[in-house]
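Please, structure for the following, as tokens.
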Amino acid sequence: MKLVIQGYKVEIVVREATMTFTAEKEHSCNIAGTIKWDGCSDWDFQTDGVMPHFCGLGAIQDFNIMMVELHKLAAQHIKIWDADLAE
């Protein structure tokens, strides 16, 4: 599934117990990762050893919203999602 969240081009693949994703935005921090059925997640900031860079508070807020929305999508689409553990 492909979508745009806060200007990030997001691609997700949902399986029974996980959702993997990539998110890219020009002049921002690109990420890839996995969110599991229990709400645990792994986030690869794909910066090759360089610290992620955000230009201003708005860019940080966009990134945060995108991360939260990915978690919400996982909750909606992972068939065996455990809401009690995920909170």
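The chain has one domain: 2-86. The radius of gyration is 13 Å.
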